[in-house]
Amino acid sequence: MRVWFRFIRLNRRVTAAMSARLRGLGLSIPQFDVLSTLTEREGLTQQDLAARLYVTKGNVSGLIDRLVEAGLVERRPIPGDRRSHALHLTPAGADLAAQGLAAQAAYVGQTLGRLGDDDLAAFEALVLRWRALARAEAENPTD
Questions:
Q1: Given Cys at both, which of 3, 64, 95, 97 links 35, Cβ 3.0 to 4.6 Å?
Q2: Burial, 117: exposed, middle or buried (Cβ in 10 Å; 0-12, 13-18, 19+)?
């Protein structure tokens, strides 16, 4: 349990640090999540985006509305589908996403990047094993 609590506290510390950096750009973490995800793959529907972010479509809907109003994201019609729209970054959204990604890279470099190659490799192996266990548990929950 000690390792679990340390992990949770580290997650909170890292999240708070990134939140402060992103606030300096005028972004929240959820807004940055959307923008950075769209830098990886534009044209996602809100449903696809919600699945990638592990949130509900309802959570994404209001967030996208605000990003559209801010001129950072645009909805484009999908031919043959009157219900869904493809989400794309505007030039301002792409620029802000790039700034957020640079802030994130700087923070990672200042923290995780200071670990040696062997430590990073061992840490990555443990994280991947933990992720596999978490995925297996999600597929076959055992109370």
A1: 97
A2: exposed
Percent of the chain with pLDDT over 70: 99
DSSP labels, 34-53: HHHHHHH-TTB-HHHHHHHH
Q: Can you read off the two tokens belonging to residue 110?
A: 């200042």
How far is Cα 46 from Cα 75, in angstroms, rounded to an integer?
Answer: 10
Tokens describing residue 62: 């209001």
Rounded to an integer, what distance in angstroms lies between the CA atom of residue 24 and that of residue 15? Answer: 14
Digit-coded pLDDT (tens) for 73-114: 999 998 888 888 999 999 999 999 999 999 999 999 999 999
- Residue 56's φ and ψ, nearest 5 degrees, are -80, 160
Whether the CB-CB separation of 77 and 88 falls below 8 Å is answered with no
Give dist(CA 86, CA 76) in Å, integer.
5
Is residue 47 within 8 Å of 84, Cβ to Cβ? yes
